[in-house]
């Protein structure tokens, strides 16, 4: 088996770049990219654009044509071995006569992991696994989360002042961050299968929660809007119900949902946790609905509750260069955290300037 | 008059670097650095180390000896023209026969500004003013503030979590930030003529507020410790009264200060603003005591009050990678800021990593 060289890394990096082209449209499928190299020439590139459309490998094979024979195939995810909406990619690679397949990561489904590579290996194709694995896993963190934990990847977005305020006590909270941050949030939404908020935010701000940037091509997809509304207080007249895309209202059951349903909402009842809908149950349901990534854009009550329950995978904090003072609402309402020992450590993943604001991306430390 | 060249800038940058060597010991004098260049050779360097000791120019002239004749002198502050603790530097430069003097900034005293350069010019020396002026003014922001506003430069240091908490409601606040940030605070203290806190912090934490790092040579100087204690609640047994350096307790008057005075504190009464000592009056008194820079290390009550009164010149926020939640104390208590319009904009001057923490240095926008 040949050694991994810088050239291999460059091709895999390119495959990851291609994969990311599916960031706004491939879901619920994973993003996958593929590069086919014959005799040091890139002869084919492909990525997975839309569920139901061709897989990355098939697109790359089509571009490579006859030159796929004997070629090296770099692919960010193990080629599939099963008949889904399309025939198995492993079969197509074998038929094309490729010589070697380098995959960044296995299929995360326990039951199928390794099957695609096995099929290739059995057919005499050289097979290698793990090149740039962590980058590939990070790219599809949502897909991996759904498949392995039956829970979407939960990303919580917060806009706050540098002293951690998200609103004044009087409720004022609009435009804490600037246009750059708002444009950035459009991209977060476009990558998410669902955008979740609480009824408090809906009643206070009547948010749209849709993707409306002309710079983002989602191929018509909108994230599912999810509103946690235990007592079903949402008026049928809210703005989001007039917009393209679907809205799921999560209640504790027992209320009349006629008006909302007539206005186009889906209303579903979930197990309650005290007076509130159990958010873990809602997340499980979203995974069953093939949602890979949930973006939470909510007030401190819901975001704090997710933190308390250790249900947050990533925080994206847009920090505006302002001091808002004490007559404000905090980032997170966490009534159960009463001592310093309750605090959560963060692993800072990225700090970027977005217009006048600073974007801090962090995961919660175990 | 010759044009300013990159070589001039390099020499002035060096002079600024030399000036900064006095950062822990020159006060209440400004930091000043001087470089003497003859025929492209640096023939003398000097800086001002201690009040009462030689000025930067004299040290540089001494190093240059005969080679000062006809030389160019780069100095970060206009040479003095008056007889203070030492004879005037302008005179010494004239006697040494220097050919040209390049000064970064004028003496900020209105009454003496320009006098030193005038004396030089009258003696036939080429004189130039303003090279790297803003860097020179920033270096001596405290001295300039005291001289021009009769108020020290007020720097407020805060240690907080990323969600803006400075303590738990139960009072726990120790070690929010890490050892790197604490070492950095030692440097801030060592540069300050006074460290100010409130009686609440003294009663809760019994802080030392001294410079104790072995890496910092203050030539024995300690910042004046200033405690705002309107009702004179400070016990004579507090730790700071056992440490080297002086302590000033600021009260509203009318209380018995015998115990504190016996324990070594100076107790002074100030005009009250409501129930509290008027902090602006205290700052004015500190300027009269020749304090250039005040470092405020206090709880949200005092820091918030300084912000409300627009008395903060610079914020230094050490942000720890933690989420502390809502059962916490805010960075700043600002009861008068009730709407979003009351918030203050920040000009971020610097963002640095200090150990695990992020240090944000900012000024308040007008």
Helix content of chain A: 25-40%
* Largest beta-sheet characterization of chain A: 9 strands, mixed
H/E element order of chain A: HEEHEHEHEHHEEHEHEEHEEEHEHEEEEE
* Strand fraction of chain A: 25-35%
Most residues in contact: chain pair: A-B, 47 and 47 residues
The low-pLDDT segments of chain A are: none
Q: In terms of structural class, how would the helical and strand content of chain A be classed?
A: alpha/beta
Radius of gyration of chain A: 23 Å
Number of helices, counting only DSSP H or I runs of 4 residues or more of chain A? 11
State the strand order across the main sheet of chain A: 11-10-9-8-14-6-15-19-18
How far is the N terminus from the C terminus of chain A?
38 Å
What is the residue-averaged pLDDT of chain A? 95
Count of DSSP E strands of chain A? 19
Descriptive report:
Two copies of one chain form a homodimer. With 366 residues, chain A is of the alpha/beta class. Helices cover 27% and strands 25% of the residues of chain A. In chain A, a hairpin with a 2-residue loop joins strand 18 and strand 19. In chain A, helix 3 (89-95) runs parallel beside helix 4 (115-122). Chain A is elongated and about 70 Å long. The mean pLDDT of chain A is 95. Chains A and B meet through helix 11, strand 16, strand 18 and strand 19 of A and helix 11, strand 16, strand 18 and strand 19 of B.
Brief summary of the model shown:
The structure is a homodimer of 366-residue chains. Helices cover 27% and strands 25% of the residues of chain A.
Topology overview:
Two copies of one chain form a homodimer.
Chain A: H1 6-19, E1 33-38, E2 41-47, H2 56-64, E3 72-75, H3 89-95, E4 100-103, H4 115-122, E5 126-129, H5 133-139, H6 141-149, E6 153-161, E7 167-168, H7 179-191, E8 194-198, H8 199-205, E9 224-228, E10 247-251, H9 258-262, E11 266-269, E12 272-273, E13 276-277, H10 279-288, E14 293-296, H11 300-308, E15 314-320, E16 322-323, E17 328-329, E18 344-354, E19 357-364
Parallel strand pairs in A: 3-4, 4-5, 6-14, 6-15, 8-9, 8-14, 9-10, 10-11
Antiparallel strand pairs in A: 1-2, 1-3, 7-17, 12-13, 15-19, 18-19
Helix pairs in contact in A: 3-4
